[in-house]
Amino acid sequence: MQPAPPPSIRNVLSIAGSDPSGGAGIQADLKTFAANGVYGMAVVTALTAQNTQCVTGVELVSPDFISRQIDTVFADVRVDAVKIGMIATAEIARAIADALRRHEAPNVVLDPVMVAKGGDRLLTGEAVAALRSELIPLADMITPNLPEAAVLLDAAEAASRDEMDGAATRLMALGCRSVLLKGGHLAGDESPDLLVTAARRQWFEGRRMVTRNTHGTGCTLSSALAAQLALTGNAFDAARSAKAYVAGAIAAADRLDVGSGHGPTHHFHIHW
Hints:
It is a single chain. Helix content is 38%, strand content 18%. By secondary structure, the chain is α/β, with parallel strands linked by helices. It has a domain at 11-136 and 213-255: UDP-N-acetylmuramoyl-L-alanine:D-glutamate ligase. Strands 3-2-1-4-5-6 form a six-stranded mixed sheet. Strand 5 (108-110), helix 4 (125-135) and strand 6 form a beta-alpha-beta unit.
């Protein structure tokens, strides 16, 4: 009897901006994919000039060329999950949505990067509207933090677990299949996340860790979720594994020596 063939390694595509310092964007996504045991690919939406202290410039890729990148990957490679990060403009959002619909992309995780850590809005109103109407209905999971959820809902930011629960329900009404609402902006020592689907809701508890090295945590979590969805196909199993992975990466972040600002998490904490 012939031995059974080995299980196929899953292929996961990131559609996001580039961070040359390696802590966020496609660089963080590819590290996260590798650490979670999947093959990573990347479509670049924007080039940034940044380090651990600041961003000094952004160059956007044209929507047509973003579409060409996506089409070329799907023409040759089986894609088992997609993570979407920085979209920058309404035109880019529509180009990504059109391409993903063409290819019936599975396991789409959308990280709606809309609010900078300092509180500044990163997307125009037109781009937020396109994200709501074009990308969220394609998403198997969206991963907003509390300020981003407030922008999506045009509402006040949730300040309690009860308000998070209500916000997650309203986010589901935008058309996605699940919401992982991140509670890291709540006051106190806890950092709980809430996962909501049409049939179930579950809190994932976590302690707030004291470290300045948290650059790219949102990118890392959404990428880990995409990897785990490709591996398991289950939103709750994926969230449990991804949150544990990110918690470990943050806890080990101070072992790295990268820059003098807000450094990255340790994506390979399990392996190094």
